[in-house]
Amino acid sequence: MKRLLRAASLGILLVQISSICLLTYSCRTPIGDHHPEWKKYFDGYHVNGCIGIYDLKNSKFIDYNPDRCGQRFIPASTFEICNSLVALQTKVIPDTGYIIQWDSVIRNVHPWNQNQILKTAFVHSADWYFREISRKIGTEKMQQYLTLTHYGNMQMGSNPDSFWIDGNLRISCDEQIEFLKNFYTYQLSFSKKNIDLVKEIMKLDYNPGQLNNSRFILSGKAGRGIMSDEIDGRIKNIGWFVGYVEKGEAVYFFATNVQSGDLVNVDLNIIVKNITLDILATLQ
Would you please indicate which residues are annotated as catalytic (active-site) residues? Predict the structure, then answer.
């Protein structure tokens, strides 16, 4: 008899928990649309990849290759959005016009070989600039902000000034979008002034025809990184383009990730931007 009562009580408890979970899920999980036909945009450049889009106005997710959207990759230069915010918030740099002197080391990217302000360093992904401000921020403070913002796996590893390039930091498309949404809506632990400063340097020039409408405002950051596959150890060439598009009252957050085995002959920064713009152009 006691066993029957225990079983009945357990059954009631499980039903109650299931009901609560179902209610929570239905309240927190937005409607999503999957677009397997977007595969053609990636196939056209001979890359594997995915894209996640969040329609803020309609609380709606749109994606291609949702399984990959949940996988984490090295963020590369897309982390410069967060790095800029932390540098401004901690007053390591006072504003986007603050100059850091070039160290006279000749690097492969010509625009890097000069003095930089935050805006120019952000536009050209000048790694040495962001490594310098990361060192000034310090490991303890940087880790604090990674945790506060829930940035990807929140792990720096043993490379305090390059953990987003060759360290342990990893982030998925889904997490990129969550970070961008919280950034845009002022939900992160940064002042409105500093968020607005970073929003300004994120604005991009582009051909309005690519989005079929000149009223779009495009903001974002591209990135390219190298990482080894956790399963087979092969080196992967990873490309990112993350950001948001504003059209009137509508805002679409996006995160596109691509991968190529060719480490030399492909420019993933161009490829990932073109794929993203082609897909965004299909949105109404």
Answer: 77
